[in-house]
Every structure is written in C-alpha cells, then in structure tokens.
C-alpha cells in the first residue's frame, strides 16, 4: 500500500526488474533493483517484501546493498513472495534482489514494499523507476494458441498394489493465459468411456493432479491402457492434450 509523505521511510523508492522479456514457463533468473532517495529525518528500511510472478526458492535468492553481497538476518519464502529482513538499515544505498522463477502470465508485475522492523505495520510501496520497468512480458505468448505447456506424467505405468511404489499417476503442467481453475482432467478407457474426472488440483499457474487408478465411484480400475485428457478452455478456444497411461497389478 502507499503511505503518506510524512510517514515515508525514505523520500522516494524506485524499482525495476531485469530481464523484462522472457519465455513462458522457463526457469529464469531475475534481478530487482531498488534505488531509494532519502531526505532529512528519514528512518530508512531493513525489511523487503517482494512478490514474484511465480514460486521462488530461498536457495536461489541473493541480496546486495551497494556493491556488497549480504546475508539477510531472516528470509521467509511463501510460494511467490519473499520477506527479507536485513542485518542493517538502508537509507540511500541501492539494493538488488536476485531470484529465480517461471513466468506464466504476460505483463506480470514484480512488486516490492519496504518497511522498518521497529515500525511494524508501516509499509512503503516501491514505484516503477520508469513506465512498466517492474513488469515482465512474454512476447511469444500473445500469438500462440497454446494454453498448456510442460505437461509431465509420471510414472508411465502405475501399479496400485499397496507396496508404496508407483501407486498413482501424477500430472503436472503449466496453464497459460487463463486461470488454472479452467483445467479439466479426465481419464478414458480405450472404448472412449470416461472412467474418472480428477478434482482438486494444487498450485496456481503451474498445477498438479494425482490419479490413484480409481473410477468416479472410488473403485480400482481393471489393468490395461487408458487415455489421460488434459483440456483448457478460454474465450479464444480449447487446448487439449491426450496421453496414454498403463495400469498394471
């Protein structure tokens, strides 16, 4: 959120991210640069809250103050957000935050807020240094009709016999352009009869579903070959991918 001028931690805080054009669903390294401008009486900041376009991992994060790489006092990762507490107060040094993520939506904003640990509840928004300098674009996405990317299914043969090995099929894929709630996952036998429809996928953008080789009534399906249909609907059309999966006992 924005704060009133009298409550500002620094006079101005401007940010930008690079790179700004990437390929959808490709693990990419980013650097967000914050340039603060201080005034008389400014308290500075020692807490950073960054929201990335996709999930981030703490192992890939680095922080630099000025030309020094520093170790944060505390770093918390929650899916696509980073909460970093520095070991020092920053007033007018630039700060760089490096991270890796996958971008699934065009024109994704990377946002940053700053705070001071001894002034809880007061957050100052970092504004874009230039027009859209905090926005990441997917130039190949608008012209593509694909809504599904990176579909993986494992294992190739599921053996739900209770030994704890290859008990269920796990599907993972990225949903482009539309909300992942639009995903329809159905299992068919070779006659074209629907055996099961999967519910409760996890994740946002990059989603995961599991099939324990049961039908819609919860009964084990007979051994054999089945077809897995992943379908995404949007206003511009339908994208569908069909892959085989074998069940053996």
Describe the structure.
The chain has 249 residues and is mainly beta. The chain has 2 domains: 5-136, Immunoglobulin-like; 148-247, Immunoglobulin-like. 0% of the residues lie in helices and 49% in strands. The chain has strands at 12-18, 28-37, 45-51, 62-65, 68-70, 74-78, 81-90, 95-101, 108-109, 111-115, 124-125, 127-128, 135-136, 148-154, 157-158, 169-175, 183-188, 194-198, 206-211, 224-234, 237-247. The strands form 5 sheets. The chain has a 6-stranded mixed beta sheet with strand order 5-4-8-2-1-12, with no helix packed on it. Strands 6-7-3-10-11 form a 5-stranded antiparallel beta sheet, with no helix packed on it. Strand 6 and strand 7 (81-90) form a beta hairpin.
In a few lines, what is going on in this structure?
This protein has 249 residues and is mostly beta strands. 0% of the residues lie in helices and 49% in strands. The strands form five sheets. It has a six-stranded mixed beta sheet with strand order 5-4-8-2-1-12, with no helix packed on it.
Secondary-structure element order, N to C: EEEEEEEEEEEEEEEEEEEEE
Using DSSP, what is the number of strands? 21
Strand coverage percent = over 45%
Low-confidence stretches: 1-6
**Radius of gyration in whole Å, from Cα?**
23 Å
- What overall geometry do the principal axes of the alpha carbons give? elongated
Enter the CATH topology name of the largest domain. Answer: Immunoglobulin-like
Q: Between the first and last Cα atoms, what is the distance in angstroms? A: 56 Å
Shape-level CATH architecture of the largest domain: Sandwich
For the sheet with most strands, the description reads: 6 strands, mixed
Q: What's the total helix number?
A: 0
Mean pLDDT: 89
Spatial order of the strands forming the largest sheet: 5-4-8-2-1-12
Helix content: under 10%
* Name of the level-1 CATH class of the largest domain: Mainly Beta
Backbone structural class: mainly beta
Structural domain tally: 2
